[in-house]
Design brief:
271 residues; alpha/beta; eight-stranded mixed β-sheet; 11 helices; 42% helix
Length: 271
Amino acid sequence: MTMNCFEQARRVVIKIGSSTLTHKSGHINIRRMEQIVKILSDIRNSGKEIILVSSGAIAVGVGKLGLPERPADTASKQAAAAVGQCELMYLYDKMFAEYNHNVSQVLMTRDIVENKQRKQNAENAFDRLLTFHTIPIVNENDTVAVEEIEFGDNDTLSAVVAQLTQADVLVLMSDINGLYSGNPRTDSSARLIPRVDTIDSHIKAIAQGAGSSRGTGGMITKIHAAEIACGAGIDMAIINGEQPEQLYRLFDGEAVGTHFAAHPVKKEELP
């Protein structure tokens, strides 16, 4: 099976989860981050526009502050995010610069896309950043986000960004190969589902589960992201972030992970 939509895509949104970017200690997994940056730089060199949605600010902040675990209270999480975001962007800037690519930081909250004028401003900013050949790096603005304006997880945020920027495809790099028929960590008979054309109650049922200690989502948040993306005519894939070289295979049109097929959308249906 081929996945030509990824091979032919010009504008791509790629989301990297906390469990991909960090060790269990909470500190940055430097080797993997360097691998991802190198591969993304090469893909950018091939002519694709890349928007990176990166988790990890809170996890990195927890590690840098020497906290024993991810805090539960909002103020501490916001403080950890403020510290961690600086470190995260410093590393991205340094690593991408080695391959002659500029990065830009975009911090978002839900009220940006729910307000017509702010949404237009965000669309214009993304468009200009890509025109300037930068790689926008997006995260939720955890330092100021409260329940009323938070996305809650970066899977959802990445789908919203894909829709906002009219991306061709969305790729979620996770700590699992894709969507399985059961929980592969506890069910030896679970099998990878290579393609999902319709997200129904069965798909949602098998996706139930918690995320890792370093992230906020699980497979169910990825299914929600697929609903948003596919409903906007954007194909989505879930691949294993522990094997970043899979990005090459995906954009070469090979069947990798789980492909969620986009729904046909008429122009007048787009927001």
